[in-house]
Write a structure and sequence with these properties.
This protein has seven helices and twelve strands. The chain has about 230 residues and is an alpha+beta fold. The chain has two domains: about 70 residues, no CATH class; about 150 residues, Phosphoenolpyruvate Carboxykinase, domain 3, CATH 3.90.228.
Amino acid sequence: MFKIELAQHTIQINNKYEYVHALCKDYLTEKNPEYTIELSDSEIAAENKDNAGYSPGYLEGLGVYRKICEALSEQDIILFHSSAIQMDNKAILFTAPSGTGKSTHSRLWKKRFGDKVSYINDDKPLLKCTDDGVVVYGTPWAGKDSLQSNTSAPVAAVVVLTRSKENRIYPISREDGFAMLLNQTYRINELQKMTIILKNINRLSCVPLFRLECSISTEAAELVYNTLKGRGIL
């Protein structure tokens, strides 16, 4: 048993395996918990959907985060599949279907801008959505390379990536971006919570949205940076 703080909320995890405790080492806290998360053996086994041979500890970690996301949805907090980086005290979220290259693009920013750029979370950050804006929070669930930090930043822009031989960026409307944003969230099979998620995707769609057609090059990172800087977003 241990406690962590995620997105300014404290969660007690009654774990069976050490894996999830080690995973969450940067988020441990002694604060009183608001939520308690615990998985049964059958719930852990149910996470092994692809029969991929993952360890029970790893599967428990997946289930723990799923339950955390379901609990925090009532606080207007959603999981958003993206690579979240921070620059000039603002966050940029790069999102795309799996395998498109959002992590690769984030690495181009580190290569081009060095220590001016830091990772908040490279895979599954949490977003706190309000009518006044969106804040992204780091989590331990950060992809295979575990690029994350226990920090947060206001979201300045969301960039939807597509592969191309040429680099081109252009703004997209809330209407055009909504479905893509929704596809990148964890959608809960419960009407009341799904209604909350839809409300918060609508809030997220108010953030400046861009589509980036890009190659794997630092020029693509420079194009995004110059565009956001030129528009006063960064």
